[in-house]
Inverse folding.
């Protein structure tokens, strides 16, 4: 600790011009000590831009809309970030998302009350995650491959059991409202899950061991961490979160769609994480960053929709905006760590 | 054998270990007493690290038996070995670059708060700083990412981590490899201090013969997976060790 103050003293003694520059840098990095700070900056700038160019942006109705864009990718991001941190990825999360509401639907059809049907559906999602995880770690297959296989397999299952038709999620108004139909319920779920996963990552052994596994798998194993167990556990987490998101999304929309979610949903989750500062190389990432990444994406989608961007151009614009947001964030993060001058 | 059993800390008998077609250890036996420091010398690829990793429970031997305090044990995990007081500084240091110094020091033995078993970051920081101060190797901050530290600082952290948990059996795989002269001196002092307590068994792999003879009570030479020479440090010399290495090398070439 004493060396820290010594370093600050050295900075004060430097030449005035350099000191001024460093002072500015100090002030900015004072804010940027948070890893999430750079992406917060990006999000605020985007909100300002859309508010200034469009009077309807910060209205209650529109905030509800934005929150609904944000919620699902934010929850998926929680799972994908945990996986990315331990150097794996789940490409099939969007498929589990589509499958889960049909599992609830058929559970209820077979006579289960809705809440047990949801729990059974989540249990099945967990076993999907377990299978993917076991195949990945026991057979040493890259998760990119296992989950690519699972991607098509789960789609096939969903289309088969639904016969390709939508269905109405079971249950009364109150339950549907709590799960997703009430305007803000989905984002409240998202906040709760983000908070829980943040605590899991930063304040539990599981989270620390997840970071260690992705940061240096051999070192983690040498320290006695069961790295396979960590990975499998995180595959289960992603699958359960994806299934849960699919269920609440179905209640919000009021319909199970066999083609919901998919690669789009999964990539929005992963992109939220990456925009939020999670490294694809493993070992580091933040859940709060992922939430803000999802907010950035939601604001972009909603903002461009309000501006009435040509529907054909929409994906292209979103793609470019994601690229720019990621690049700005990565450069800011490098600058913050002092590796770019 | 049984007469010395009360001072014996760890013993390995006829350890064989293969990696596919590579015979890494071909019937190796070693023994370290309490209060003793054993030096393990040998060429690159001789099997030294593999031997150490069997004693830490990281690898399981194909055959052979390990004894801890005279009792036969099957070390089936690193946690198991650690519960018997075996600690190790691995050759690769087993540090996670993306984690802070204090998280590395407490990796897989984290301190937790009573409340929900959440990590006690503050206490880990405090104890990590104290443990590093104790050794005397300066690290800018225990919050710093390990990636930002120098090779010697990283090695100091790995040593501090192994030492500060009250190891009974300390295994060091080239603990001085990246150290400057002053820092190497600090680590050697530390080893001396631990040895003077008289109850800790230390096994240390090294490549500097003179330094090893100086630090250790006894040395063994590992070559192509076998122990080819064994002596008390006072009864041998660098010349003799080098002569054995050359002889074995020639014999291996002829074979
Ligand atoms: N995990 C592993 N998988 C396959 N082969 C291995 C593994 N670990 C070690 N080996 C092989 O076993 C032999 C002994 O390796 P080991 O690391 O024990 O040597 P060493 O004596 O520690 O050498 P050095 O002085 O270079 O550290 C080598 O041929 C090595 O290639
Ligand atoms: Mg070695």
């Amino acid at each position: 600790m004493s060396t820290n103050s010594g370093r600050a003293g050295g900075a004060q003694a430097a030449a005035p011009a350099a000191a001024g520059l460093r002072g500015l840098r100090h002030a900015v990095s004072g804010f940027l000590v948070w890893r999430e700070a750079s992406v917060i900056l990006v999000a605020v700038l985007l909100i300002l831009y859309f508010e200034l160019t469009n009077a309807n942006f910060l209205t209650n109705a529109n905030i509800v809309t934005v929150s609904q864009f944000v919620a699902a990718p934010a929850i998926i991001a929680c799972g994908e970030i945990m996986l990315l941190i331990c150097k794996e990825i789940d490409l099939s999360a969007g498929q589990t998302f589509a499958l889960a509401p049909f599992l609830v639907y058929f559970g209820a059809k077979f006579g289960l009350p809705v809440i047990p049907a949801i729990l059974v559906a989540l249990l099945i999602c967990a076993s999907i995650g377990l299978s993917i995880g076991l195949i990945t770690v026991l057979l040493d297959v890259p998760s990119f491959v296992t989950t690519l296989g699972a991607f098509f397999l789960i789609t096939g299952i969903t289309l088969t059991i639904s016969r390709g038709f939508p269905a109405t999620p079971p249950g009364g108004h109150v339950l549907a409202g709590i799960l997703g139909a009430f305007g803000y319920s989905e984002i409240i779920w998202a906040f709760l899950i983000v908070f829980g996963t943040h605590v899991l990552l930063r304040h539990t052994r599981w989270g620390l061991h997840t970071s260690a596994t992705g940061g240096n798998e051999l070192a983690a194993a040498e320290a006695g961490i069961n790295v396979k167990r960590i990975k499998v556990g995180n595959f289960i987490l992603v699958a359960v979160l994806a299934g849960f998101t699919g269920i609440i999304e179905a209640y919000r929309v009021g319909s199970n769609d066999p083609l919901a979610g998919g690669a789009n949903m999964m990539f929005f989750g992963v992109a939220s994480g990456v925009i939020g500062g999670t490294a694809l190389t493993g070992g580091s990432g933040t859940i709060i960053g992922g939430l803000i990444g999802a907010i950035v994406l939601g604001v972009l989608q909603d903002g461009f929709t309000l501006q009435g961007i040509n529907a054909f151009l929409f994906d292209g614009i979103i793609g470019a905006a994601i690229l720019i947001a990621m690049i700005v964030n990565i450069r800011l993060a490098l600058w913050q760590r002092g590796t770019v001058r | 054998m049984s007469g010395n059993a009360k001072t014996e800390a760890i013993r390995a008998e006829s350890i064989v270990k293969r990696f596919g077609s590579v015979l890494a250890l071909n019937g190796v036996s070693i023994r370290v007493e309490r209060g003793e420091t054993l030096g393990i010398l040998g060429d690159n690829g001789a099997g030294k690290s593999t031997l150490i990793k069997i004693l830490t429970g990281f690898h399981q031997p194909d055959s052979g038996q390990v004894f801890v305090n005279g009792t036969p044990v099957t070390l089936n995990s690193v946690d198991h070995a650690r519960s018997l007081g075996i600690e190790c500084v691995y050759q690769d240091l087993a540090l996670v670059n993306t984690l802070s110094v204090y998280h590395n020091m407490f990796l897989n033995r984290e301190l937790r708060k009573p409340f929900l078993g959440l990590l006690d970051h503050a206490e880990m920081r405090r104890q990590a700083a104290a443990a590093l101060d104790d050794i005397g190797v300066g690290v800018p901050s225990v919050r710093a990412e390990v990636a930002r530290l120098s090779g010697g600082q990283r090695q100091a952290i790995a040593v501090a981590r192994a030492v500060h948990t009250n190891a009974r059996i300390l295994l060091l795989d080239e603990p001085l490899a990246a150290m400057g002269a002053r820092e190497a001196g600090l680590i050697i002092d530390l080893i001396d201090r631990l040895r003077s307590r008289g109850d800790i068994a230390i096994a240390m792999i090294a490549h500097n013969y003179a330094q090893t003879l100086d630090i250790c009570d006894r040395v063994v030479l590992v070559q192509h997976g076998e122990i080819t020479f064994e002596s008390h440090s006072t009864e041998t010399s660098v010349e003799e060790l080098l002569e054995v290495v050359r002889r074995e090398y020639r014999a291996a070439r002829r074979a």
